[in-house]
Every structure is written in structure tokens, then in C-alpha cells.
Specification:
alpha/beta, globular, YdjC-like, Glyco_hydro/deAcase_b/a-brl, metal-binding, magnesium
Amino acid sequence: MDFASPPAEPPASPARSGELLGYPADARVVIINLDDFGMYHAINAAVIASIEAGIASSCSLMVPCPGAQDAMRLLRGKPEIPFGIHLTLVCDTTHDRWGPLTGKEKVPSLLDAAGELYPPAQRPELLARARLDEVELEFRAQIDAVIDAGLAPTHLDWHCLADGGRDDIFDLSVGLAEEHGLAVRAWLDPARRKLRHRGLPVVDHDFLDSFSLDLDGKAARYAQLLRDLPAGLSEWAVHPGLGTEEAQAVDPDGWRVRQTDYEFLTSPEARDILQQEGIVVTDHRSIQQAWLARLT
């Protein structure tokens, strides 16, 4: 007589990354990371204020940019501020442009027809042309510049290229992170699955990029997003800046996004919501320590 096999047990749900970092399963944990530190001075001032007087927890430094030396000077004076390296292959500005740290003759596949870094609108062309060996040269130059300045980053992430934009660029970045004892920000499902398979903590939920939010009603939207924050580890990439004359001249398409981000991050309402909701704000140092423990 044939007997039916008992139903298979469902696979155990993997632990949320918050649990891997030592938080209870129902804890609501968020990294509020400030991207574009070093792009220009009005961003630098807003980043520091948003961490010291606001709710932000860490930032990401764009090494090739005009304000990078000022940003690194600020970080040397404030070693308690955790920061990552915002690996940069894209230039947002149409004047006062920045280029690669590597000599242009060594990284021609990273440059457009005018011999400049590609603008964000031409990311597909960049990703179609970029040679991995040239990407590595430039990424190493940016990492080395930070380390040579006597600074200790926590992680790597990318400017305008989620998870590096290509699988091989992501894998290269993970290798560089492991070489230097850093973590890596992973946002999209393929990269998150790859790292989870290795037992490494990554965000549990879809990331938030502040440039995706409408300017109208943004503060109310931020407040609702905090109140609705799910259990596990989340990450917000926020872009604060001061609405100075410099910002309006250099960044005509982005300064309003940055100013409204800054206004919310430093508002009493934002801090009150975190306290009322019992939300834990962490930074990439905890991710870095978990990576180091797993990979050693």
C-alpha cells in the first residue's frame, strides 16, 4: 500500500539583518546615510549639521569632487562621524566639473566624447563602455586618497549607480571592501541575495532615495515613512544641502531637494517621531563589524 509523503516543512525564514546585528526580531532599525558629502561646500555644512544636530547617522564621501578636501578636513576633526566612500564615475554638474582621480589617459572608457566623466543621463552609455580594469584603477585611487588622508571609512557605496550598475562592478567593489576591511551597501535584490547567501547583513527592505520624493509635502511624507517603518534593517539615502547662492548656481536641479532634506533631518518633529516610535538609528559601523566577524 502506498502512503503519501508528508508535506515538506517550509524552509526556515532567514534572520533579518537587524537580528544579525544583535537587535530583537521586531526592532525597527534604520541607517540614515547622507550621500554626496564633498560635492560642494553647502552640502558639507549641511551633512555635518544633519548628523550633529539632526537624525542622520552617517555619510558617504565623493572623493573626486571640488569640496572633497574640505570634507576630509571636517572628518579628520570629527573622527566620531562614520562615513563611507561614495565611489564616483559620474559627474552631475555642467560647470566646475570634476574628473577621475586617475589620469584621463589611463581610463578612457570612463570618459565621454568630450573627455569628461559621463553625466547621470548617460549612465547606460557609461556602463556599456566601462572596462572593469579601468573601473578598478579609479576605485582604488579614490579609496587610496581617503586612506592616505589618515581617515578610516566604514563602507563602500556608489554615486548614481545602485550596486555599481553592473554585476562585475559590484563584485569588484565587494573584493575591494574585503581587502580594506569595509562593508558594502547593497540595495537591489540580486546583490542582496548574493551577500545574504554568504551570511552577510544587508538591508531587509527597499531603499529610499530622497531624490525620488516629491518636493510638495515632503516633510509629511518623511514623517509617515518613519511611522510606517517595518521591522528589520532599512536604509535611507538622503541628500541634505543648504540653499545658498553657491548651491543654486552649481546645482540648479538639485538644491531644492537638498534643502528640504536638510530641513526635515534637523527638525524637532523628526527626532520626536524616532522617540515616539522606538526606532533605532544605526550606521554602517555595525555592518562593518559584522562583515569583519563573518569574513575572518
